[in-house]
Design a protein that fits this description.
Length: about 250
């Protein structure tokens, strides 16, 4: 199967303005993310889906293939435009966040294997929750899994609800809770259909786009990983990323 990575790239960002073009490491955050994604052996190409000419110019300056897209409400919609207009031969599209330059390329390969082997319309990643803070935070999306490794539901609430056990003991042991990591692989035809559907009832309640796919009857395979990439959302996140890069140099 031909799998192509797509990085939806928006210049606007609230907590860290113009973060994709920050370059204190000697490379922009966008370039670092693209170069890292290119190390995934399962991808035939990694394309940047730019929201405007400034991002597009930056991408072309470091040699990335770039598509200038229109206005879209989500990264999935931006990727669907690229798939429809530029990738007729892609079987799978992998959505790679532009602010995750330390995503393990092996996890991208795992994601591609998960969707290829399972026959699911979508694959994504989850990791065990080990802290009460993550469990209780509505910003940390939880996954309930079936025995087949497919998602039953995604929620901002702690799912499953544990009635008769000590939560702290469970967190320290075989935790039943999974944190959703926002990287996806889509089958091309399903992605094009999905982005034509209106927001679904549960999606609007939880503000979780992936629930639209579940409500449409899609199977979402979840591959479990033990470590996660650190997204760059704040000035503190970026400073820590720069420090890690300098230590590694």
């Amino acid at each position: 199967m031909n799998a192509v990575g797509v990085i939806p790239a928006r210049l606007a960002s609230t907590r860290l303005p113009r973060k994709l073009l920050l370059a204190e490491t000697g490379k922009t955050l966008l370039q670092a993310t693209w170069e890292n994604a290119c190390r995934a052996t399962s991808l035939s190409d990694v394309i940047i889906a730019a929201d405007g000419p400034e991002i597009a110019a930056a991408a072309k300056a470091f040699g990335a293939r770039c598509v200038l897209t229109g206005e879209h409400p989500s990264g999935a919609d931006r990727i669907a435009e690229v798939a429809r207009t530029h990738l007729p031969d892609a079987d799978l599209l992998v959505n790679i966040q532009g602010d995750e330059p330390e995503l393990d390329p092996a996890q991208i390969d795992l994601l591609v294997r998960a969707i290829s082997d399972s026959g699911s319309e979508i694959a994504t990643l989850g990791t065990p929750i080990r802290s009460r803070g993550e469990l209780d935070s509505p910003n940390c999306v939880k996954i309930a899994l079936g025995d087949d490794g497919r998602a039953i539901y995604f929620s901002r609430s702690p799912i499953p609800f544990v009635r008769d056990a000590n939560i702290d003991e469970l967190l320290a042991g075989e935790t039943p809770w999974l944190l959703h990591l926002g990287v996806y692989a889509y089958r091309r035809d399903f992605l094009l259909r999905l982005t034509q559907l209106p927001p679904s009832r549960l999606e609007k309640l939880e503000k979780l786009e992936q629930l639209r796919a579940l409500e449409a009857g899609a199977a979402i395979q979840v591959a479990i990983v033990e470590h996660r990439a650190v997204g760059i959302d704040t000035p503190e996140d970026y400073a820590q990323f720069v420090a890690r890069q300098r230590r590694a140099a």
